[in-house]
Amino acid sequence: MKLTRLALGLALLAGLYVGVAAAVRAIHLPLPGNLVALFVLLAILWTRVLRFLPAIVSESIEAAADLLLRHLSLLFVPAAVAVVRYAPLVKTHLGDVALILIVSTIVVLLVTGAVAERLLGNAPKEEP
Fold first, then answer.
1. What's the rounded Cα separation, in Å, for the pair 115 and 109?
2. Could you give the CA distance from residue 105 to residue 125 in angstroms, rounded to a whole number?
3. pLDDT tens, residue by residue, 86-126
4. Residues 5, 60: contact at Cβ < 8 Å?
5. CA–CA separation, 108 vs 2, rounded Å?
């Protein structure tokens, strides 16, 4: 039964991706299909649409998400292999890559902090 739920959850997530990616290509949206699918999934979870579906659907998606999160580090292997494969190219542009990594990390931290403060309501109060 657990394997069936896992397979159903993975099929639902894959189906969402394939459907959204096809829609993005059909309407010539200048964004990657996987990014739009991620936002569609976020909207589905945020609006809690899943609670109106049979319990097996939400349980299946939860099982699939748990599996993917447990093995998330494996998803970084292709990126690491690419860095090793293109090491000479990375070495020639090491300064640019380092600057991009530092700036993007700072931006992510600032945006994450701002969103967390806004969602949690812990934004500092301004004094007059």
1. 10
2. 26
3. 999 988 999 998 999 999 999 999 999 988 888 887 655 66
4. yes
5. 36
DSSP state of 124: P
Residue burial 17-33, b: 16+ Cβ < 10 Å; e: rest: beebbeebeeeeeeeeb
C-alpha distances in angstroms, 105 versus 23, 70, 102? 32, 24, 5
Return the amino acid letter for 18: V
Instruction: Identify the three-state secondary structure at position 82.
Output: helix
Task: Please tell me the pTM assigned to this model.
Answer: 0.63
Q: What share of the chain is helix, strand, coil (3-state, %, to 5)?
A: 85, 0, 15
pLDDT tens figures, 46-101: 888 888 888 888 889 889 999 999 998 888 899 889 889 999 998 899 999 899 99
